[in-house]
Design goal:
The chain is mainly beta and 176 residues long. The chain has one domain. It is 11% helix and 45% strand. The strands form two sheets. Strands 3, 4, 6, 7, 8, 9, 12 and 13 form an eight-stranded antiparallel β-sheet that branches. Strands 2-1-5-11-10 form a five-stranded antiparallel β-sheet, with no helix packed on it.
Length: 176
């Protein structure tokens, strides 16, 4: 038993370093976003979804860690009833790749909505989360992509960008 702990001790230290590493947004002008999220009405008119700036983070656990994201309140200011598709416009085409966008389901807890972004344990870090909804991102052109909302049950959702345990701190949340 002691030998297993000695063997896994370096892994634990590395996991701790990742967990307490500050995850910052890329430096950007507030008027420019690395990406934007929008829908189109029945006439094809674009309706932008505002970024939620009231988001906080918390890392929990001692041996097994979870990095959680909290959205204030029990409802989003954006309701997407009657829309079949959600669109992502990538403004930073040098840094961002479509495969790293995540559609996340938010859970209600203690007057807020929350999701787990990543977790880590003695076995290592995992960027997969049970809150991530597998979805296909369909290209429209070089900078615009589509995610189908068909078949999603009513609830709270968010779009984020994540590579491994690194998260670009721009969140677009909505309710169906």
């Amino acid at each position: 038993m002691l030998m297993k702990l000695v063997y896994k001790f370096p892994i634990l230290i590395i996991s701790l370093l990742f967990c307490f590493q500050t995850i910052n947004a890329q430096e950007r002008d507030d008027s420019l976003h690395a990406f934007k999220v929008y829908v189109k009405d029945s006439n094809g008119i674009r309706i932008d979804i505002p970024e939620n700036e009231h988001v906080s983070f918390k890392t929990t656990g001692l041996v097994a860690f979870k990095h959680k994201c909290f959205f204030l309140g029990l409802e989003s200011q954006t309701k997407l009833t009657g829309y079949d598709d959600l669109y992502i416009q990538i403004n930073d085409t040098v840094e961002l790749v479509p495969e790293c966008f995540r559609l996340m389901r938010l859970r209600e807890k203690k007057g807020n909505r929350e999701m787990t972004c990543w977790s880590a344990s003695l076995a290592g870090a995992r960027d997969s989360s049970k809150d991530c909804i597998p979805s296909i991102i369909y290209p429209i052109d070089d900078t615009n992509f589509r995610i189908s909302l068909k078949g999603l049950p009513p609830g709270h959702y968010a779009i984020m960008y994540q590579i491994g345990i690194r998260i670009l701190v721009e969140f677009y949340d909505f309710d169906l």
